[in-house]
Write a structure and sequence with these properties.
The protein has 287 residues and is α/β, with parallel strands linked by helices. It folds into two domains: 126 residues, Aldehyde Oxidoreductase, domain 3; 107 residues, Aldolase class I (TIM Barrel, Alpha-Beta Barrel). Helix content is 41%, strand content 18%. It has a six-stranded parallel β-sheet with strand order 6-11-10-9-8-7. The longest helix is centred in the middle third of the chain and has 31 residues. The protein starts with 9 loop residues before the first helix and ends with a strand.
Length: 287
């Protein structure tokens, strides 16, 4: 089995590196560095956290430097999943000054974005510690970066929900509207014999029995108030897993988790997590 790099195969990671560097460097190269730094100049530096964060993507960040300078010397001082304090060094780098300067922003952007997701997931996960409820992510990800976003969410303590539309059945309100009813939608999914659990989204407690009677394997309670979630939990009474979703905030997630739902999903983890502050500070090459 190939080694995974931030949730990607080595070939996928290599393609990602190429696309990101192409986007940042362009066709003519880093004209500023070429104009101001001699080809033989070397630099050493450290990438460090500038705030408290949960680290994700450090191996991928390394690949940007190695792509432009295969002989660069790298020393990793922190691993994905670690909680870092401001000033804590993540990675030491040394090599061609032109290469390090050209790779810097791509490496930092990737590290900051993935660590931002991991940090957000960690914060939400800690908020429901001890409740028995499991934090899920969603498909609300940056287009083209789902694998990385989901990886970072896992690093931060969330469990991945569906990665794609082909790896899970989730009947939502629009499916129900087209099918005509909850029962019709679930029955059709059962008839398809997809060999997957069938989860059904409901936005009213009175839809739950209809979904269960049709054979639903899991219920997603969408945008329900805490009181409604408690009634849903009591009604289902452990027959199938229950997910609470929609409008979940850090301020409300613990109260939601304490209703007894099995899962709570949070789109904000991947959709709008702010990038963290990491930086590369250059030092004399002999340091």
């Amino acid at each position: 089995m190939e080694k995974s790099i931030a949730g990607m195969s080595p070939s996928e990671a290599a393609l990602f590196i190429e696309l990101v560097l192409k986007e940042d460097i362009g066709d003519s190269g880093d004209v500023t560095s070429v104009a101001t730094v001699s080809a033989g100049a070397t630099l050493a530096g450290v990438i460090a956290a500038r705030q408290e964060l949960t680290l994700a993507g450090v191996e991928l960040a390394e690949l940007f430097f190695l792509r432009l300078d295969p002989s660069a010397e790298l020393e990793r001082l922190a691993e994905d999943g670690m909680t870092l304090s401001p000033g804590q060094v993540i990675l030491k780098v040394a090599g061609s000054a032109q290469a390090l300067l050209a790779a810097e922003r791509s490496a930092l952007n990737t590290l900051a974005h993935l660590s931002g997701i991991a940090t957000s997931a960690s914060i939400y996960s800690r908020a429901i510690d001890g409740t028995g409820c499991i934090l899920l992510d969603t498909r609300k990800t940056v287009p083209g970066l789902r694998t990385l976003g989901k990886y970072a969410a896992r690093v931060g303590g969330a469990r991945n929900h569906r990665m794609r539309l082909d790896d899970g059945v989730l009947i939502k309100d629009n499916h129900i509207a087209v099918a005509g009813s909850v029962h019709a939608a679930v029955s059709a999914a059962k008839s398809a014999r997809l060999q997957m659990p069938i989860q059904v989204e409901v936005d009213r407690v009175d839809q739950i029995e209809e979904a269960l009677a049709a054979g639903a394997d899991a219920i997603l309670c969408d945008n329900m108030e805490v009181g409604e979630l408690r009634r849903a939990v009591a009604l289902i009474s452990g027959r199938v897993p229950i997910e609470a979703s929609g409008g979940v905030l850090l301020e409300s997630i613990r109260e939601i988790a304490l209703t007894g739902v099995t899962y709570v999903s949070v789109g904000r983890i991947t959709q709008s997590a702010p990038s963290v502050d990491v930086g590369l500070d250059y030092l004399p090459a002999s340091t």
